What we know:
This protein is α/β, with parallel strands linked by helices. The chain has 5 domains: 18-114, CATH 2.40.50.140; 134-277, Rossmann fold (3-Layer(aba) Sandwich), CATH 3.40.50.261; 280-314; 315-452, no CATH class; 454-546, no CATH class. The chain has helices spanning 3-8, 18-32, 71-76, 116-130, 158-170, 187-200, 231-239, 256-260, 268-275, 279-314, 318-355, 360-453, 456-459; strands at residues 36-43, 54-59, 64-69, 86-96, 101-113, 148-153, 174-179, 212-217, 244-248, 263-264, 465-468, 485-490, 493-499, 517-518. The strands form 3 sheets. Strands 1-2-3-5-4 form a 5-stranded mixed β-barrel. α5 (158-170) links the parallel β6 (148-153) and β7. α5 (158-170) packs parallel to α9 (268-275), α6 (187-200) packs parallel to α7 and α11 (318-355) packs antiparallel against α12 (360-453). It is elongated and about 185 Å long.
Amino acid sequence: MSIFDAADSPSNLAEYSVSELSGSIKRTVEQAFDQVRVRGEISGYRGPHSSGHAYFSLKDDRARIDAVIWKGTFSRLRFRPEEGMEVIATGKVTTFPGSSKYQIVIESLEPAGAGALMALLEERRRKLAAEGLFDADRKRPLPFLPAVIGVVTSPTGAVIRDILHRIADRFPVHVLVWPVKVQGEGSGDDVAAAIDGFNAFATGGPIPRPDVLIVARGGGSLEDLWSFNDEAVVRAAARSGIPLISAVGHETDWTLIDHAADRRAPTPTGAAEIAVPVKADLEATLAALAARLGNAASRQMELRRQALRAMARALPSLDQLLALPRRRFDEAAAGLGRGLRMNTLAKRQAFERSAAHLRSDLVAGRIAERRQRIADNARRAERMVERLLDRLRARTAASEAALRGAPMRMLAEIRRGRESLASRARRAETAMTAVLARRRSQLVAQDRVLQSLSYRNVLKRGYALVRDDAGRPVKAARELAPAAAITIEFSDGLVDAVAKAARPDAGDPAPGDAARVASPSSTAPARRKGKPVPPGSDPSDQGSLF
């Protein structure tokens, strides 16, 4: 029997469909492993799914098996599973025919230990915490408005796009990206070298030094994020002279760099929101503050005017201030003369009474003594009057000086307020002018780059662009069929033409086989742009296009 006859002979093996084979394997596995107890470490756990079921894996140092806890069983568990926890799971092994996978359906779960990775992570955390790398007093505040942001992440993932998009939406600033591996062998050393590299930039150097750093990575299992638990990465983050934001994984993921960083963000997008404020909010706040400043200055000026008018109304006039002292002085001056006369009269009467009992010599001595006393009293009275007048004049002068100085002090305060307001207005105007000039220069630079990359500059040097009837550029002569309608674009317009037979090379044309462009005929499309063809000229003289 030949080989072909053997190949065509029927086989004794039974024929199964894919569904029948998958179902048979499922029944065999479920019968062989009806109830099993498996010890392993939980990996890839992210909490219950939106459906209520929990999906994760059980692993040891050599193998991994998928696991699932259905919604009804999950609600009856005595404790909730956690990432990295070593557990003993009891359940049934089954298969999933849709993807040819097997898994264990867990019915009960018991804790068996913290797991090797979690134990190593906890030991490393305690060691670094004992060295003071996680102390709160080592953390520095982030700059309110950084001019340059350094990002340490993978350049190909969605993380960098999310960060750049969020920064551009909130407050566009200069972003420097240091590309690193975020998973696998050597990724921890790459991240540590990137942090040290950003810190090595000199202030004012050719590459600007970042004001804040973002170390970012997307979510993943404990093994995927293990690079950010590396001791070298944690120490690099702790000694960084630039404030650092850690944005590793999702909100539920924690790594050791989160403890050493100055700030932890729940997601990479959240790190961008922490790094820069919202420009629109700042502009609105600035406008509101400027309006409040203007209103406050106006209200302050009006209050000062009202206070000045009230004080002016409350102050008495100079005549009113001096009226009472003048009256007292007049009364004192008038009473002094009367008092002197009455005193002289009383003394004379006493003298006359005493003169009857005194001798002439005693009277003369007593008279001389009394005259001296009267003269002394008169001199003392004059000095007292002069001192009283001096005190009244000094008090009057002080009152006048106080009245003259009060308006000057108020005017000085008003002048200082006006100068402060004008200074702040000049500073605001200078800041806005600088911002507009910077935006204008950036727009001019981008326009120059756009013009330099435009193909129209090539057309101006004498070249032409050939398009087919569908408007697509023609890159080779073999793409054109004979009598094909084409459009030639020059720097100053478009010309419609019809192609003849294609020439195989770029050498000298042979009679009858050169690829030439025929002039527009009655069947060719109408000319859209370009210079008109002179009457009587030969359209075939326009030469080869290839």
